[in-house]
Design brief:
Elements lengths: L7 H15 L26 H15 L5 H7 L2 E5 L2 E6 L3 H13 L3 E3 L5 E3 L1 H20 L1
Antiparallel strand pairs: 1-2, 3-4
Helix pairs in contact: 1-2, 1-5, 2-4, 3-4
């Protein structure tokens, strides 16, 4: 069911692995050199970060249909360290999010929402539920 999507980090990692294995998610050439936001100092250490971020975005779209790139930028934003000046919130990189959403759309896991933003497709929901239940059952066993 939908509520099983709360064991988020395990699901994102599993779903990321699933996206990688499928080999259908188009990966931009620049994923090894970009930071995920202007306020980050370094790019992600994990080489599979793009798959995991895509999985996390898919999960976000599942839980809240109709959100667009701007809303997701806020969610993945964080605080920028401005030295001795007070920290501020900064949005995440739109390019990373936009390309990931486009890739998920090409895989037919999400689609454009009629009122703007993105929504999950039946195939996307099916895959997400399947992986969520796998993660849930393995976390109960442990």
């Amino acid at each position: 069911g939908g509520s099983s999507l709360n064991v988020s980090s395990g699901i994102n990692a599993e779903y990321g692995a699933f996206l990688k294995k499928s080999g259908k998610l188009p990966i931009p050439k620049w994923t090894d050199i970009v930071k995920t936001a202007t306020f980050k100092e370094l790019p992600p250490k994990d080489n599979d970060w793009y798959y995991i971020r895509s999985a996390a975005l898919l999960r976000r779209v599942y839980l809240r249909q109709g959100g667009g790139c701007g809303a997701l930028r806020k969610i993945y934003g964080g605080r920028i360290n401005r030295g001795s000046a007070p920290s501020h919130h900064k949005d995440a990189s739109a390019s990373v999010i936009r390309h990931a959403l486009k890739g998920l759309e090409e895989m037919k896991l999400i689609a454009k929402h009629p009122d703007g933003g993105r929504m999950i497709t039946s195939a996307g929901r099916r895959d997400a539920d399947r992986i969520a239940s796998q993660v849930m059952s393995s976390s109960i066993v442990e």
